[in-house]
Amino acid sequence: MQRFSPPSWVSLSLSLAAINVLSNCAIETSNVFIALYAQDLGASKLQVGFMAAAAGIAYLLSSLFFGRLSDVHGRMRFIRAGLALTAVSYLFQIFANSPVTLLAARAIIYFCIGINASVLVAYTFENQNQVGRFISYGALGWLL
User: Fold this and answer.
1) Of the N and C termini of the chain, which has fewer Cβ atoms inside 10 Å?
2) Tens-place pLDDT, residues 102-133
3) Could you tell me which of 78, 93, 118 has the C-alpha nearest to residue 26?
4) Residues 107, 58: contact at Cβ < 8 Å?
5) What is the DSSP string of 120-134?
6) Averaged pLDDT of the chain
């Protein structure tokens, strides 16, 4: 297992907390505006619900699949890949010009989020045994 080594002035717990706060902040910031954006594109309330459902299903499938893969192949490559793919996938929302393309963009975003979400929790448990504190930082990201 390859350990993440942050700079000497940053502790591992601070690095993991920062990742969790910032990623949950990005998720919730996007969620606040996505229904309004979808309605501006002409989506009905039912279609907005389908967008949320597609995102949830993509997140579930991705978390299950990549969580298991990280057990076998190591966690750090999935954390890095998940964060990078999530950052890139958020750009897809900008180019959505219809409710269907926005639904696809949201599904892709949540699929990418699912790559690192479960892996981060497992990594935190293995290296710190402080999952409760780690989850609390995620809630702080929602608040921000």
Assistant:
1) N
2) 999 999 999 999 998 888 888 888 877 677 77
3) 93
4) yes
5) HHHHHHHHHS-HHHH
6) 86
Model-level pTM? Answer: 0.85
Max Cα distance, the chain (Å): 51
Q: With contact defined as beta carbons under 8 Å apart, do 14 and 124 qualify? A: no
Report how far residue 66's alpha carbon sits from residue 111's, in angstroms, rounded to the nearest whole number.
Answer: 10
CA–CA separation, 78 vs 72, rounded Å? 11
What 3-state DSSP class applies to 113?
helix
Higher pLDDT, 49 or 24: 49
Contact present, 117 and 63 (Cβ < 8 Å): yes
Letter string b/e over residues 103-131, b meaning 16 or more CB atoms within 10 A of that residue's CB? bbbbbbbbbbbbbbbbbbbbbbeeeeeee
Structure tokens at 106: 């949201």
Q: For the chain, how big is the Rg over CA atoms in Å?
A: 16
